[in-house]
Design a protein that fits this description.
homodimer; about 150 residues; alpha+beta; 3-stranded antiparallel beta sheet; about 50% helix; globular; Nitrogen fixation protein (chains A, B)
């Protein structure tokens, strides 16, 4: 395992979301690094992944968890409830919104989900952090809408 | 066929959305009344419909078309692009948002979609009209967010 865990709250939320779904306790013996490993996909690995057919349900579950962790972090920083809405076409592209009240705090387009993953854990955190900042900015710009 | 067509723009949009999906021309010979018939489900019919299992894909397609027609009407009245986002759990409940810019113009919870339908076409129009009014009001309240 070549992933070094980064003590960032987004990584912690992600691990918590993964463990929360593990009702049978199958992951109990797995380290955080092992649970995060499927999120890390190098460029070379992506090239090997076929783009035909529908993306694996496991991939879609990881997409959900990634944006779920972003939503949790946004809640922490703004003190507001944030709900992710994923609209993913079965062919692997779509839209993700993070909603606070009546505000679309974060708006993301996703595509080629067959190859969802980040080069490194640091890149995962960087991407998540960018989305959190977008959300914080929108909520600070339109606080009344986020409260509506 | 006991549905009288109501010359309401929402009904017209709904018919247009149904016909737009009919790529093979299978509905060409069908009247508007026939195409709208599956949207009308009486209380007695609903009681007969089982709530177990997942709702039929045809029902989910009708839910999409109903909210699609509401979105089109909202676009007409506000001059803004409105996108529906449906987040429906396979068991037949979920949320529907109509998004204009960064604004959630309409927010609806749906449930028991196994039994989706309206007692009469007038009730369909009434429900749709209520959602359109909600959308117009939100957009008029937060025009900058709808433009963002």
């Amino acid at each position: 395992m070549d992933i070094e865990t980064i003590p960032h709250p987004i990584v912690q939320s992600l691990v918590r979301l993964i463990r929360a779904e593990d009702r049978s306790g199958a992951f109990d013996a797995d380290s955080d690094e092992e649970l995060l490993a499927p999120f890390i996909v190098t460029k070379a690995e992506k090239r090997e992944m076929p783009m035909f057919g529908d993306p694996d349900p496991d991939i879609l579950a990881r997409v959900e968890k990634f944006y779920g962790a972003v939503a949790i972090e946004l809640e922490q920083r703004t003190g507001r409830a944030v709900v992710p809405m994923l609209n993913i076409h079965h062919e692997g592209w779509g839209r993700v919104l993070l909603i606070a009240g009546r505000l679309v705090a974060v708006k993301a387009h996703v595509r080629e989900l067959h190859r969802f993953g980040f080069e490194t854990l640091a890149q995962l955190v960087e991407k998540a952090e960018k989305l959190v900042v977008e959300g914080v900015t929108s909520i600070e710009t339109y606080p009344a809408v986020a409260d509506a």
